[in-house]
Protein 1
Amino acid sequence: MAISNFQKIDEARKEADLLNNEARTADQFMAGITQVLNKHMLKYNWVGFYMLEPGANPPMLVLGHFQGAMTPHTRIPLHQGICGAAASSGKTVVVDDVRKDPRYLACSLETKSEIVVPVFVRGKVVGELDIDSHFLAAFASEDCELIEYCAELVGQRLQKEQKEGSS
Ligand code: SME
């Protein structure tokens, strides 16, 4: 019997928790999260982080750890793309059909839907988790919950590291 999306989401969440216990740094955790989501969730074909470049003016999102094909978009200003929209609004953006969204910056011809979830540290956006799918409308509400959970864990790790660095 095929494993349901809910079962896969449950497994991915457990793996994320395990990784959170095992990863020694926020950076290691972020690298691992891209692998967990790409491996467990079969429709998550490109999984990566864009992080706000510290001190950049104008603000710039810079490609971080990712799984999937190399993208031409390694640096994205906040007024561009689905990525820019999520980072500037501080809200999760789900696009069921990227061909119908004029904001979309093409990364692969195969991409059909996309989700971008902001990562917060002390209430401020510091980056985002971006996932592309080769399937239309791949991100249901339970997927959003999983991806937002992972982005929240990343924010907590980054915040903890900043606190340790300043103490
Ligand atoms: N599609 C994104 C650009 C990043 S790639 O998908 C990896 C956007 O519209 O912002």
Protein 2
Amino acid sequence: MQILDGKEVSSYKKEEIKRETEKFFKDTGRRPHLVAILVGNDGASETYVNSKMKNCKYVGFESSTVRYEEDIREEELLSKIREINKDENVDGLIVQLPLPKHIDPEKVTETIDYRKDVDGFHPINLGRMQRNLPSFIPATPYGIIMMLEHYGIDTQGKKAVVVGRSNIVGSPISILLARNAQPGNCTVTLTHSRTKNIEEEIKRADIIIAAIGKKHFVKEEMVKEGAIVIDVGINREKSDKTKSGYKLYGDVDFERVAPKSDWITPVPGGVGLMTIIALLRNTLDAAKKAVYQK
Ligand code: NDP
């Protein structure tokens, strides 16, 4: 069993992005700028946005957070997005999910200029990704691809089973793994809550991508000997044993599954760290496009 180590890959990639950012600054006199919009006071969202901003600072980006109260009107949020779309000093714009129920996330996503959509959720980016054309790839799936690439894992011809079909993780990673590319060229099965005999599907997988949001959903008996296991899940539970007051668990029962697998990602220390790297990479690419492809 070997660990797909998010700490190792993310720190390697972060230094690479930092060096490229300094060169970009020397060449153009400008720094990539990421804006995050945060609505409400969700603790997890606050942590994610803070971490994204801290990482932006580390690699030499400019970054800013626009905060709104939970009860902001949808139109006010959309109009702020339109304003940022026009701002030439901003390269990337993300709106942290989840949003309050009265705001339609689809409208929000489609209002973001696809050239600044560094989360890669805009239908234009998703369509381009599906066609294997240059696009911003959603951060978590992109992070997984970077990790597989970094460790030189050959995915060709393998059977990949993706558990969960969300627009931000499950669906895009299934498209990426099925593409004629390396990593890619897998035979992909996309499963969800209506899938029959899901245990049997998972048991046949050479590569398992678990993106469900249920602690330890993937158990030892569902995993084939020698499988590659990518755990996307982040399930928070209160704990009085940690400084933060909570503990994170993946969608995979790591302790029992790890000995059976060839490669596995831990939680924390796996996919989550790569998601931030992918966001940084997309933002730097957006800045380069804005300058060099005017
Ligand atoms: P969603 O809640 O949007 O989607 C969950 C998916 O899992 C749905 O497709 C759902 O099926 C499926 N599902 C739920 N229960 C079952 C079940 N019993 N059997 C089979 N499928 C099931 O989740 P996300 O994709 O947004 O997130 C998944 C997990 O990944 C969460 O823990 C989240 O915190 C984490 N995450 C981690 C990131 C990272 O950076 N590491 C980034 C993003 C998310 P259906 O469609 O039928 O309802």
Protein 3
Amino acid sequence: MRTQLTTSPRTAAERLLQNDVVAFPTETVYGLGANAFSGEAVKRIFRAKGRPADNPLIVHVAETDRLPSVVRSVPKYAERLIEAFMPGPLTVVLPKQRRISALATAGLDTVGVRIPDHAVARRFLAECGVPVAAPSANLSGKPSPTTWQAVKRDLNGRIPMILKGNPSRIGVESTVVDCTGAAPVILRAGGLTLEELRSVVPSARLMKPNSAGRVKSPGMKYRHYSPLAYVFLVSGPSETVPMKSAAYIGLHGVGVRPFGMKKVCRSVTEYARSLYRFFRECDDRGIETVYCETVSEDGLGLALMDRIRKASLQ
Ligand code: TXA
Ligand code: MG
């Protein structure tokens, strides 16, 4: 299969409506989309990514008025979150409509839904007219792609089309919030912060690890976001062993230390935006060890620390 590149949201949508999979840009990471109403189309996502079938997908729509085609009911507090943060890096988990493919939700009675805050993505979704199930457009286990080149690197020859866009502005995935209970619970930290959620619904909280008997967000149990290199968390450059086969990413300068690659970010926002791309560049250059500087776990730091911690578990 040849992978075609396009900049036309309409061309990409036409392809998707033929029950094919299409990669598309969003402000968080690139997604790999398929018609969420079609089990046959959704199956192709799992096949292209090598993704385990028990990990549900997020369903994307262009506008809030499309939400009723995906979810059955919306509690009051979730309405307030939708009003405040959609479009944006927020995924809400709600009771699913029957028409959404059971394959997309891994058989769950709930579905995660999101509206990307990205002009090309929304034009594409509007042209599709159907809800679009889409995980991140990486091979399972690799860091999520934040550029179309990274999508091509992973999925060239495995998918028919990539809708090209700019590098993702946020660089980490959306915040997944369970809205099926009495108050919102963050299942996966992401681009929308806990503080922002609480400014609208003060009772919002983080899921306590292992507090529930069952896995609420099945995707969280898989190894994720990892480069081939070993990832170590450090509080600064002084805790590292600098050498050509090692890399450093963080907020503080590393001076003349001889790292093979380094990235000093001006802010946590830039750090989050750069992380996955940095991991991929490290892999391309055969880096064996990546040192990630830890940051405080507030704001976007919560999602960033989650990702670097997961990358270090291998
Ligand atoms: O930013 C994002 O969220 C990107 C872009 C493409 O939208 N998508 C993304 O999808 O990161 P994916 O499949 O890589 O991650 C989806 C996460 C997984 O952790 C999955 O378990 C969780 O959302 N999830 C999806 N549906 C769920 C549901 N019904 N209940 C609980 N968790 C769910
Ligand atoms: Mg993913």
Protein 4
Amino acid sequence: MTPLGERLAREIAATGPIPVARYMADCLAQYYGSRDPLGRGGDFVTAPEVSQVFGELIGLWCADLWLRAGSPAKLRLVELGPGRGTLMADLWRAVARVPGFHAATSVHFVETSPTLRRAQAAQVPQAVWHDRIDDIPDDAPLLLVANEFFDALPIRQFVRTEAGWRERMVAFGDGRFFAAAGPVPVDALMPPSLIAAPPGTVVELAPAAGAVAAEIGARLAAQGGAALIVDYGYAGPATGDTLQAVRAHGFADPFADPGEADLTAHVDFTALRVAARPATAFGPVTQAALLAMLGIEARTAALAARATPDQAALLRAGTARLVGGDAMGSLFKALALTGGDWPQPAGFA
Ligand code: SAH
């Protein structure tokens, strides 16, 4: 049993099962606070770690918007959950030749993990770090990027039992954690269409994700700018249990070894759109569609033409993984938000 597991087991024995959201929040804090989870030796690989082309194209997406917004003299470029800083390093390099962009822009990272902050500083030394999105300065337009950030925020789950709807809790017994329905009826919280859903139906709510989206929407409306949110998920409403654990590049039991696996939930993009009002929303579109419209094939071909045969093969394989329907291309979606009088972003026709 992990130290976190022992603490949670004691707490559950003393005061009863805890909400899935509490369990997820504690596990994620322990998990991200204690390691670099990315890459081959870690637990999972993200798009910027697959190919430099991902961050480069997002850089051009940013520069194009900034130019069409009239090249404001001051810009706050924000990334939520920057991982190893790879996306921002690729983005920053790609926009170096856009006149005035570097000079106008300061980079802000919202990151809680000290380990990952160190990795980010090695790649993007000029960044300024913040614990929360609320701490970003409010004096200039924002361009905000978040890749695989929202899936790492805790969700609440509700389950339909024979006796009606209950919050889904985490219980402990016989040396292991497991999901169990809580004691309090919550039918009054459920939409009418789901009241009579079959027993076993699960519904998820992401209040933490909603709060971040609301802050982004309010900032964009007040400061101007745009956001690009990329993650795996769906356009809700939907039912189903999407809580999953990933460890050493495979799926694991979310209730085994608390704090030792990456716990995620699929992102409800409709909920993010709604939470981000008054910002204007575009999408979600699939990652494949977005990257195609941003010119991933031409960019890959141009890089491959200048590369060694081995490097060219890696570049093509990376692009295939980013856009492939059976890889990341269709499960991953992109949502764009704009505020102020910023124009429609590229890639969201
Ligand atoms: N965007 C990166 C990393 C994705 S992993 C990439 O695509 O490679 C999730 C990232 O979000 C990590 O950097 C993690 O430390 C950070 N993170 C998770 N929960 C967070 C929170 N509540 N506040 C700030 N950062 C968080």
